Amino acid sequence: VQVVETGGGSVQAGDSLSLSCAASGRTFSAYRMGWFRQAPGKEREFVAAITWSSNSTYYADSVKGRFTISRDKTKNTGYLQMNSLKPEDTAVYYCAATNSWSYDRPKDYEYWGQGTQVTVSS
């Protein structure tokens, strides 16, 4: 499985941004897709995840109500819609895929994209 993120960029606080994650390789319905982020000097942290088959979603408390994860099974693509962005959302955002029951631990994800930078200025 390969995952490739697109989107990202520089925005002002309060703006919105959308990230996409295109998956290829094995049948992706067996996997869960997650979004993580890593700010300079900090550990990689969980942002959101979605179970590909059931559409169940999970969010970090810090983004709940502002970010929405979704997926289009026909396109094998996942999305992260980010609204009401804050400067503390600035980080490199990574898309990842796992076949694990876990959804919020980076070590449980086997496949990772290259990351895309999101910068939010005040």
Helix count from the secondary structure assignment? 0
Largest sheet report: 7 strands, mixed
- Describe the global form: globular
Order of helices and strands: EEEEEEEEEEE
Number of strands: 11
Radius of gyration, in angstroms, nearest whole number: 13 Å
Strand content: over 45%
How far do the termini sit from each other?
A: 37 Å
Question: Would you tell me the overall average pLDDT?
Answer: 94
Structural class: mainly beta
Q: Helicity range of the residues?
A: under 10%
Q: Segments where pLDDT lies below 50 for 5+ residues?
A: none
Report on the architecture of this protein.
The chain is mainly beta. It contains no helices and eleven strands. It has strands spanning 2-7, 9-12, 17-24, 32-38, 45-51, 57-59, 67-72, 77-82, 91-98, 111-112, 116-121. Strands 2, 4, 5, 6, 9, 10 and 11 form a seven-stranded mixed sheet that branches. A four-stranded antiparallel sheet has the order 1-3-8-7, with no helix packed on it. Strand 4 and strand 5 (45-51) form a beta hairpin. The model has no long low-confidence stretch (mean pLDDT 94).
